Amino acid sequence: MKKQKSKFVAILVFFCCTFFVLTIGCSKNDKAGTDSEILQVVVTLSFFEDMVSQVGGEHIQVTALIPVGVEPEDYEPVPADIRAINDAAVFIYNGHNMERWLPSIISDFASRENFYALAEQEEIETIPLPEGPFAGDPDPHVWTDVKNAIIYVQKIYSILADASPENRDYFKARTQKYVRELDDLNSWIKEQVEKIPHSKRVLITSELCFQYFARTYGFFHDAIWTINAPEEGTPAQIIRIIDVLRKVNAPSVFVENQVDHRPMERVSRETGIPIGGILYSDSLSQPGEGGETYIKMMRSNVEQMVEALTGKESD
Ligand SMILES: [Zn+2]
Question: How far apart are CA 203 and CA 225, in angstroms?
Answer without folding.
Answer: 14
